Predict the structure.
Amino acid sequence: MNRSVPPTPAARRCASALPTLLLAALLAANPAAARPPVIDVHVHTDPSHYGDVLEVLAATGVTRFVNLSGGSVGDGLEEALDGAAPYDRRVLVCANVRWREYAASDFGEKQAAALAEAARLGAACLKIPKVLGLGLPDPDRPDHYMAVDDARLDPIWAAAGRLGLPVFIHTSDPKAFWEPVTPANERYAELSVHPGWSFAGPEFPSRETLLAQRDHLLEKHLGTIFVGVHLANNPEDLDYVDRTMAAHPNLWVDVSARVPEIGRHDPAKARALFVKYQDRVLFGTDLGFGRQLMLGSVGANRPNIADLFLFYADIFRFFETRDRSIPHPTPIQGDWRIDAIGLPEDVLVKLYLTNALRLLWHEAGPSAVDREALEQARPLSSFF
């Protein structure tokens, strides 16, 4: 695998002022041909955008993606799956829980049955958002939130295990979201745009409580694979991620929207973690593609297609090179520089491609689908 040369920090800062063809030339310095096909397992979109997402991502070298916002049975999932059907399994769809019925006494059992139907229809996974633990009042204790490991939900996790559906679970959020929203908060810019993302009030459970609940869930359901999105939602503490993955072999992680945090650590330590758990780490970005783009997060200024290409180029640079003090991909998430971790080529292949193929597509390696996607990809210059 040849090491690509990404846009320089100066080029990134000046990108918006460059003529479009020159910008395309800069982006082309980071060619998709320099790496294996890439799968993005953490995308949020809807069926009307599948073709556009595939076309844009193919220009970056991403040949497949997983839509985590598939909806529930009778509430969008069928449309999401039908929309994916024409694309030769380049799009997989996660089912979602119908949370608005959560207070019903038989909620767990009904959602387990719905999950079985979702699997029959073709859903490949289940996505659980942070609303579990942070947004659903406990039906029996309205002054508390429903716990992540609430026993009433056990039928859902058991069904996912029986059906072979990995559970992508988002539990808690960045540490800074529990700190006062003042200029001293390192994510003040992001929280100022999204005040509802703050959990600094006493009414919210602590991060530690939420993560402990999630880890207890892993213990209760050893036959179910859980994907802890955002590096198990604790990239600030790599020792914790290491301990948790060692203790729970049914835990996988994705890297979506957390390169800014991962890159603040000693690169040798971060690299060692990825090498140690190389068979259980997935590439993802938290791309949102719809009425507006979301590139890991979103601020007051709407990103454009050039920002999307730069976003992927910065992430590839982080995993493929050992550059120091480089910009991270999502400036709204904090004002700091990161150090790239330069993973070994065999680990990169697993991160980018084969782990996702094995877990979600049940395939051993890339196929004609990936080759054709790259061969038919539009050149970057055609987007400008």
Notes: Residues 345-361 form the longest helix (17 residues). The CA atoms of residues 7 and 26 lie 6 Å apart. DSSP finds 16 helices and twelve strands in the chain.
